[in-house]
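Hey, quick one: can you model this chain's 3D structure?
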Amino acid sequence: MAGERVRPLMGYGGFFIEPIIQSNKLVHLTIPLMFGAGWVGYIEDWRRRDDFDREDLIDDQVMWVIEPGVNLEINVASFFRFDVGVGYRFTQNADLINTSKNAFEGMNYNVTLKFGRF
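Sure thing. Here's the predicted structure for all 118 residues.
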């Protein structure tokens, strides 16, 4: 990979639950939890071409992901909620070239706008 132009790609998804504590209060807590699986890989930089082939893949790995968090949520209107939160992403140790084993773990922060019937 040294000297090569590469692009990282990553995606993950899974099951998401979010218990809401005292949702009828103006300000309340939610405790989101996502667990699932994901894929991460390095590909040869192909932006100048029209296609991506499996041969462009330099290294990749499938891994599990667990992401717990806590949010402070505000009931703004009967149809709108706003929250800010913090979480931590735990992943399987990365086994990719030139990548530290915990490269995809770490703190994350979020701002969420929720619209609907609550």
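One thing worth noting: Residues 6-115 form one domain.
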